Amino acid sequence: MIRATRVIRRDRLSGGEIVDRIVLDSGDRHRRRMAMRGVGGTQFLLDLAEAVALDDGDALALEDGRLVWVEAAPEALLEIRAPSPLALKRLIWHIGNRHIPAEIGADAVWIADDHVLAEMVRGLGGSAEPVTRPFRPEGGAYAGGHAHDHVHDHAHAHPHPHHHPHD
User: According to the UniProt entry, which residue ranges have a biased composition of type Basic and acidic residues (predicted)?
Assistant: First the structure.
């Protein structure tokens, strides 16, 4: 099986033959080694020296020089907002206290869709609306040490959380 041994970041992508694309959720966008199959059928082994957080628009370089485009899969999330910046900070604290992956924006936070957490947020005065979009959770203090080192025969979602660094 051909291997993908390098990541080319979207801002450094300058040409090259894009032969396929791979659509991955936030968990599968942070890997070191994993068998993958592109949307067009290209099969390859992701085989990096260390786990890397892939983002929408990056490319994986196959050993023969061809490229596979990385696309962030839309995921079912909750978009959490609050009536003031202080109220949002409090909500972020409560979410963080539950040790769940979260993507923090300037005026909103996104977490995996969870009805219990949605009710908690609403009970604390915030809003929690379901949205479908790519998820880019914060990496956390120890993100550099987190890596997967197992092989799967196809791209799929995992039921367990992952923590990923941002660009």
Answer: 146-156
